[in-house]
């Protein structure tokens, strides 16, 4: 394994076509928008998709979705307790700093998402809590223009239970609403900090695995809200600096990505947009299409 020596920045451009990329449970599960009407996908949702992709590729993941879990454990605590040495450290009282470092090292070595994104270990019944800062940071995805949201009423007209009064008659229909973004182009950014990577053991090979996961972000992610093919990664931009601090700040690197509409009519395809990246002296950019 190769230690990560230099800072890395990345950007991802993706499209949403008649899908709900990230519903807001406090707003009837409507697609998230900011107060100006721009669409949003939370960083938590993006990390969830990355965890799923990495798990599909055989990586050990601590924070697993219950419906996608690849082991017999039904909770994060059960998964942590299955690592006997880590369990012993977390249940020690008056733990020393060395114990915390050992627990952090064990957790990071065991699970990819811990050494990438970090994790807080604070469970009922444990006497030591630790917080691990991961080197991979990801921004909220934001659409390049305000998005239009369509809503439709749906009806479930099948019997969930038998009509007790008259088994020959169906029960009352159940009404509901379904929301979607008609079309939108979204961009999100991220960085990998080599100083934090040293602490968690996040390697250059781990970074390459992350890059591949970004290309296939929506593979195996289909649902009724996001039909297969309705969300697509269009471009992944990847910058590898030549120092730990980086040739430029992440903000300056991220500002080099431009996604602009090339026609004034209502866009319905990524072909209606031009994606460009400004050159930064001494910092080449890798450009990849989504897979």
Protein described:
This protein is α+β, with helices and mostly antiparallel strands and 291 residues long. The protein has one domain (8-289). Helix content is 24%, strand content 31%. It has helices spanning 43-56, 76-81, 84-90, 97-110, 112-117, 194-200, 204-215, 250-254, and strands spanning 8-19, 23-24, 30-31, 38-41, 118-121, 130-133, 136-138, 141-146, 149-156, 174-192, 231-240, 257-261, 273-277, 285-289. The chain starts with 7 loop residues before the first strand and ends with a strand. The mean pLDDT is 91.
How are the SSEs placed, and which strands pair?
Blueprint: E1 8-19, E2 23-24, E3 30-31, E4 38-41, H1 43-56, H2 76-81, H3 84-90, H4 97-110, H5 112-117, E5 118-121, E6 130-133, E7 136-138, E8 141-146, E9 149-156, E10 174-192, H6 194-200, H7 204-215, E11 231-240, H8 250-254, E12 257-261, E13 273-277, E14 285-289
Antiparallel strand pairs: 1-10, 1-11, 2-3, 4-8, 5-6, 7-10, 8-10, 9-10, 11-14, 12-13
Helix pairs in contact: 3-4
């Amino acid at each position: 394994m190769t230690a990560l020596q230099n800072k890395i920045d990345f950007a991802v451009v993706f499209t949403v076509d008649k899908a709900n990329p990230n519903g807001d449970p406090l707003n009837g599960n409507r697609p998230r928008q900011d107060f100006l009407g721009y669409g949003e996908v939370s960083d938590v949702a993006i990390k969830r998709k990355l965890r799923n992709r990495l798990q599909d590729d055989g990586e050990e993941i601590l924070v697993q979705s219950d419906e996608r879990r690849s082991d017999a454990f039904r909770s994060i605590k059960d998964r942590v307790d299955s690592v006997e040495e880590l369990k012993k450290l977390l249940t020690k009282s008056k733990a020393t700093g060395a114990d915390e470092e050992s627990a952090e090292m064990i957790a990071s070595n065991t699970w990819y998402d811990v050494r990438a994104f970090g994790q807080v270990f604070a469970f009922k019944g444990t006497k030591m809590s630790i917080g691990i800062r991961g080197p991979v940071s990801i921004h909220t995805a934001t659409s390049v223009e305000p998005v239009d949201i369509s809503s439709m009423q749906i009806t479930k007209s099948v019997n969930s239970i038998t009509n007790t009064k008259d088994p020959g008659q169906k029960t009352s229909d159940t009404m509901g609403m379904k929301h979607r973004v008609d079309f939108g182009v979204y961009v999100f950014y991220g960085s990998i900090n080599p100083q934090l990577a040293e602490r968690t053991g996040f390697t250059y090979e781990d970074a390459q695995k992350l890059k591949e996961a970004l290309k296939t972000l929506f593979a195996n992610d289909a649902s009724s809200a996001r039909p297969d093919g309705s969300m697509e990664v269009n471009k992944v931009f990847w910058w590898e600096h030549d120092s730990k601090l980086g040739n430029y700040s992440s903000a300056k690197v991220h500002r080099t990505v431009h996604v602009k509409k090339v026609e004034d009519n209502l866009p319905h395809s990524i072909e209606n947009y031009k994606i460009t990246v400004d050159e930064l002296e001494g910092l080449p950019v890798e450009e990849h299409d989504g897979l």
